[in-house]
Amino acid sequence: MESPDSATTGSSPGADRQAGVVAADGTRALVVIPTYNERDNLPGILARLHGALPGIHVLVVDDSSPDGTGELADQLSAGDTDGRVHVLHRTVKDGLGKAYLAGFAWGLARTYTVIIEMDADGSHAPEQLGSLLAAVNDGADLVIGSRYVPGGRLVNWPKRREWLSRGANTYARLALGAHIHDITAGFRAYRREVLDKISLATVDSAGYCFQIDLAWRTVQAGFDVREVPITFTEREVGESKMDGGVMTEAFMMVARWGVASRLAQLRRR
Hints:
Elements: H1 13-19, E1 29-35, H2 42-52, E2 57-62, H3 69-79, E3 85-89, H4 96-108, E4 114-117, H5 129-137, E5 142-146, E6 153-155, H6 159-176, E7 188-191, H7 192-197, H8 209-220, E8 225-229, E9 231-233, H9 244-268
Parallel strand pairs: 1-2, 1-4, 2-3, 5-8, 6-9
Antiparallel strand pairs: 4-7, 5-7
């Protein structure tokens, strides 16, 4: 079986696309899982992930969790004799986006062909990751696990959160003109070519709007973005990291991106 670190990308678009194909067991893909106080959730998520895709690699990006999540991640990594579990410790807690950017940089330095975002709290079912990877293998550049396309479901989510989420997605879709139903979703798979191209060094969104930001950059760069239905389940252990400041940041930044996009369209006429 080919190791992810031995994978290469081709020089032509066709070769690049072929190099991005992921094996049925997940080999050549990296799942980035940011954590902050997820000690009770992490072991179960890793077990389920490797039960579904035995060859997939995981990078736990821990923001110095006071509950010992980082230390537990180190123990789980040391106990994985196949070398599939890796840990990146960060000394600051400055937002989900920054944690993902650190994880992306780690993965891109090691030639994984597909890099995946997934929450640690169980809201994203590891058993459904295969459908995202299948869409990548079918030619998609970014695949979003969507709650709001036919077949998508929400389980045990408070109605207030659902209305807020649906409203945010509708607002972003209209403001940006992006035909994505769940642009705020955090369960997604990127071909490495996307992350190489969309100028990650200029990303300054740190919270909720990070997902919108990267999806919008991917659309603007002309990549193939697709959505596949998933079942999103409300966390059973721990607390949500969402707050009002995060939502305000998203509202303001989406408005700014939307205005900039409309002005650019007018200038091209």
